[in-house]
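pinned: reference chain
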Amino acid sequence: MPAMLIRARLVPELLVADLSASLAFWVGLIGFRIADDRPEDGFAYLDLDGAQVMLEERDPVSRQWVTGPLDPPLGRGINFQISVPDAAPVIARLEAAGRPPYMACEERWYRADTIEVGVRQFLVQDPDGYLLRVSSRLGQRPLRAAV
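pinned: its structure tokens
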């Protein structure tokens, strides 16, 4: 029996045009697993080591909270950071599927109080245009003086 899912306290629910295409991307390429689903409702709850997202297929006659037009690309103005142990296998799966990054992989160091935290990260859009920032930690180092 699989371990019981510990649900995160904040989980975005994304409306998508085609749940099958979204699952092929989120599960098949990014590496999430389906933790719970209701195919009859076009719904899936996904988990990747505690990173969680709900996907719901858009249905104009269903009870869905839509506050304005859903013009592609969806999710303008937001990106979802997903922490993974190693970004390289995700990049390899995306490349093999012909899915180019929105932003190429980079190494970046961010100030966090009195230290810097390093990440290897890249951006990719899902089938509906939602922007995902996949990152893996590189560690931390002392804060460098401003140049």
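why pinned: The domain at 13-60+76-142 is CATH 3.10.180.10 (2,3-Dihydroxybiphenyl 1,2-Dioxygenase; domain 1). The mean pLDDT is 93.
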